[in-house]
Specification:
By secondary structure, the chain is an alpha+beta fold. It has a single domain (4-288), classed as Sandwich (Jelly Rolls), CATH 2.60.120.330. The chain has helices at 15-27, 29-36, 65-68, 72-110, 188-193, 242-245, 251-265, 280-288; strands spanning 4-8, 45-46, 59-62, 122-130, 141-146, 152-157, 163-166, 174-176, 182-186, 203-206, 213-221. Strands 1-9-6-11-4-3-2 form a seven-stranded antiparallel sheet. Strands 5-10-7-8 form a four-stranded antiparallel sheet, with no helix packed on it. Strand 7 (163-166) and strand 8 form a beta hairpin.
């Protein structure tokens, strides 16, 4: 296992239930409002792309265990008969059966124990609907170029092409991911703790005009209070910033950098005039100096 792994198609996300859930929330604004009321900061059902043609052209449902854990009884009345049960069961089974194994394999790849960094189950689930029914229906930008902030992400696809990864050997060359495969991508946290041995994989989603695409993603990150610094040394020529080497950058700080740009890109906030909405440049300065 390395920073990019194809997991095959033996694990299937419940895309019929995911489609049903998105369709129900779009058809029932009162139900969408009830879901968003469980997390009022930026909501859990994100539809800014319906009005903002400059944002990533996608709709999102957040299924965060920590955000929903105290409100599931309230959501039961609204969502459990519309695909929500199957989605929660899928993610619960996915984490219970695979998370330990994946962390073990990733740790073995770099010769380090990753479990002490992942004690609090800092995980998040997201559903994505790259529907043509947005403010910019002809836009190819489903999700702009980025790297995830965590240890790794697992992306499940509905057999519709769109996910692309940047070639490690030929930067700027984009490689389509087979539409019937789940794929694991390492993020910035893995890059740092591995001393650069594991690449933070740049990726994007390209829309096909007129084609709806669904995906489900599991995000796994170290605990928010973990200081991000290399736990192995001598295997890479990466020059990290003094803040990283001195343990001044924890996961929470890195996540704050990521969140600010995501709010802009997902249309939940507006950048200042002339401010770049890409993520990677700011994060690279933080990590590499």
């Amino acid at each position: 296992m390395a920073d990019l792994a194809f997991l095959g198609n033996n694990i299937k996300a419940p895309f019929s239930s995911i489609r049903q859930l998105f369709d129900h929330l779009r058809a029932k604004p009162d139900v969408a409002d009830a879901l968003n009321a469980t997390y009022t900061y930026h909501g859990l059902f994100k539809t800014a792309a319906s009005k903002n043609g400059l944002s990533d052209q996608k709709f999102i449902i957040e299924i965060s265990p920590t955000r929903l854990g105290l409100r599931l009884a309230e959501l039961d009345l609204f969502l459990y008969s519309h695909g929500f049960t199957e989605v929660l069961e899928f993610f619960t089974e996915l984490t219970s059966k695979n998370l330990h194994h994946l962390l073990s394999m990733l740790g073995a790849t770099i010769g380090a124990d990753l479990f002490p960094l992942h004690r609090s189950s800092n995980i998040n689930f997201r559903l994505y609907d790259y529907t043509p029914d947005t403010a910019a229906p002809q836009s190819e930008i489903g999700c702009g170029v980025h790297r995830d902030y965590g240890t790794f992400s697992i992306v499940f696809q509905d057999e519709t092409l769109g996910l692309e990864i940047e070639s490690a050997s030929h930067p700027g060359e984009w490689l389509p991911v087979p539409a019937d495969s789940a794929v694991m991508l390492c993020g910035w946290s893995a890059f740092i703790v591995s001393g650069g041995e594991l690449r933070a994989v740049r990726h994007r989603v390209r829309r096909q005009p007129g084609v709806r695409r669904l995906s489900a993603v599991l995000f796994v990150a170290p605990d928010l209070n973990v200081a991000l610094k290399p736990i192995i040394s001598g295997k890479s020529n990466v020059q990290f910033s003094p803040d990283v080497l001195e343990g001044k950058v924890n996961v929470g700080r890195l996540k704050e950098f990521r969140d600010k740009k995501w709010c802009w890109r997902e249309g939940n906030a507006k950048p200042e005039d002339g401010e770049d909405v890409s993520q990677d440049a700011d994060i690279e300065r933080l990590i590499l100096g």
